[in-house]
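User: quick one, fold this
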Amino acid sequence: MNYLLIIKIRVSFITLLWVLSFQIARGQISPGDLVRKHAHLEGMSNCTKCHTLGKKVSNEKCLACHQEIKVRIDQKRGYHSSAEVEGKTCASCHNDHHGRNFQIIRFNTEKFDHTQAGYPLEGAHEGKSCKDCHKTDFIRDSNLKKKAGTFLGLNTECQNCHQDYHQGTLSANCKECHGMKSFKPAEKFDHNKTNYPLKGKHQQVLCTDCHQTSTKGGKLFQQFSDVAHEKCTDCHKDPHENKFGQNCTQCHSDFSFSTLKINNTFDHSKTSFELKGLHQKVKCEKCHKKSFTEPVSFSKCIDCHADYHDGDFSGKNPRSDCSDCHSENGFSPSTYTVIMHNETSFQLRDTHLATPCTACHKNEEGWRFTGLGQKCVDCHADVHEQQISQKYYANRSCQVCHKETRWNEVTFDHSVTDFHLTNAHSRPDCRACHLPLTGKTIKDYRFAGLSSRCEGCHEDVHMRQFEKESITDCSRCHDTEYFLPASRFDHGATRFPLDGAHKTIACNGCHKPRQDNQRSFIWYKIEKFKCEDCH
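Assistant:
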């Protein structure tokens, strides 16, 4: 019995020692959890995937998994082939077994020297942040694209990050023409190394004058290759319109278009300025004062002739020219017509058609054609000055009332005023109201300040019997058709309504004439209404 107990105790002790020894051994084999990216390598059966038995972590085993790094090291490219990394073990920088969240790659982007990656950042690249270039869009390797946050997968070709502005029409090596500071100008480009070296005036021409910009493939494109240049007219418009052929170099050079190579009898009719009329009698030296080859301005008459009108036309319209009104056959008479005048802002109509040009355009100082004004008062005296309100007389325009056919034909619309002309008021001549009895001339007409009350024009025949608050309103009893009868008067609204036999009595049966200051008038304001007052 004691023997069995001793055996059980020994077995239990051995088991405990085995468990403890396993835990100690595990602690010695795995010092800690692997980072999250290496978590699939946990377990004693996976140790040799990274470790060599009896040795530390092997670079060969690391690179066996990280082939993208191995390829670059074998090619002696990139940061892992730089002097700073060369000779080091992978584990010296990327140590593991420090837990799932351990930062196994510690990379300070702010202090990183990009030269060690084999691509120094120069010019405009120097100010870029890492994420401007190191992004998925620029990685061509499909496997590397899947690696989040990787700095691998880029190459040093410009078109890896930049679109080919030339769309395959030029060399893929952008650095043959462009520097690192900016895309424009192409500081390394030398036109003399092309099949069209620039000479003479061509050296001063802007690139865009020959290399046109257009749209190609839905993108902005500037043509630099295959630009036609076999003959001058490929780029230049022939000012002679093929009158002298297409070989411009027979007469002209690259250094100056105006410097001719030949000097012979010249047919002026083949130029852009054919000699006509009086110009045919002018000596060549009158126009070609320095040399026959020096360009002569001839786009406008005033290039050769003095401006007779002293800028009266050119000051307002720089495109105006003497030829608009005159011909080479003579300065006078003018070729300017009424039709041309009617194309201006002041058309000639009716009596203005019969007016001679001198009446408007010539005075003591000479001819004048611009700045004359277009309002009536600019030429004609305002005979109604200060007599018509501006709201009926905007810009002092006579055309509100008058026509160009006849001055005395008035067409004013009285309804726009506060006093509408109705019935009998619409029949009298304007002078009946607007010309005082003492007036004799047009200047005596009065239009402003006239009273709209009846007594302003008419005599109060009732001698103020119906005045209220100093105003006699005739319209309470009368309309504008006829003064008599008083169509609006209602006797029933007075203090003495007419009843019975009173309805048949004539007005003068009760309302008798009176005399006041040698004037006779009918008295309507009867104050007594008893029977005995009248009967």
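User: anything notable?
Assistant: The two ends are 173 Å apart (CA to CA).
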